[in-house]
Design goal:
Length: about 200
């Protein structure tokens, strides 16, 4: 059983693939909740104040998406704009969602690579046409260095988002790298991202 304590151990950084879509879907899910569902959400330590950033900006954390899914039966992958249809979800799907996003330790289990790969393969390649990419064209330059590119990307983010990235723990970074490495087995985009990150690290 997924508990409040398990969800509370998950770092609260944004996992939405498209903020506009996440905002729309999350607000719809929130507005459709019954009193009983809202009580269940409160038991998971989620309040309207917690929901405020999602309502205003479309950001959503693994914890919030999983909690809404547990309370309402919504598909957490739908809330993060990773799938197009809101298929009914059960606790098994929500566990997969948490694992895919690299937080299997929060569930009190250590998954092997085969289980992680199975989950990633099932939910990989989301709504490609709706995914947001952060990319800023450098002014009056045809080529830029990796360092310049990194600087452009970080400056284009909100201060809160940049702080979240700068303050990730070493353990979180290691989990994210492992997840990306597994995703690269099934996604060309993930493979390119993994290659870029490794290129940066060996410079």
């Amino acid at each position: 059983m997924i508990t409040k304590e398990m969800l509370s151990s998950i770092k609260r950084f944004d996992v939405s693939k498209n903020h506009a879509i996440t905002k729309e879907r999350a607000i719809a899910a929130w507005d459709a909740m019954t009193r009983e569902q809202r009580r269940e959400l409160k038991k998971l330590d989620i309040t309207y104040a917690t929901f405020a950033r999602t309502r205003d900006l479309g950001n959503i954390s693994v914890k919030l998406a999983a909690a809404i899914a547990l309370a309402t039966g919504a598909d957490p992958f739908y809330l993060t704009a990773e799938v197009a249809k809101n298929e009914p979800s059960d606790e098994d799907k929500i566990r997969q969602f948490i694992i895919v996003h690299g937080h299997e330790k929060a569930l009190g289990v250590i998954t092997d690579d085969s289980e992680m790969i199975k989950s990633i393969k099932k939910y990989n390649e989301p709504e490609q046409s709706n995914i947001e990419y952060i990319l800023v064209q450098p002014p009056d330059k045809e080529t830029i260095t990796i360092e310049e590119f990194a600087g452009i990307q970080m400056k284009s983010m909100s201060p809160d988002k940049a702080d979240e990235l700068y303050n990730l723990s070493d353990e979180d970074v290691a989990i994210l790298m492992k997840t990306l490495a597994l995703q690269s087995k099934f996604s060309g985009r993930a493979k390119f991202l993994l290659g870029l990150l490794r290129l940066i690290l060996i410079r």
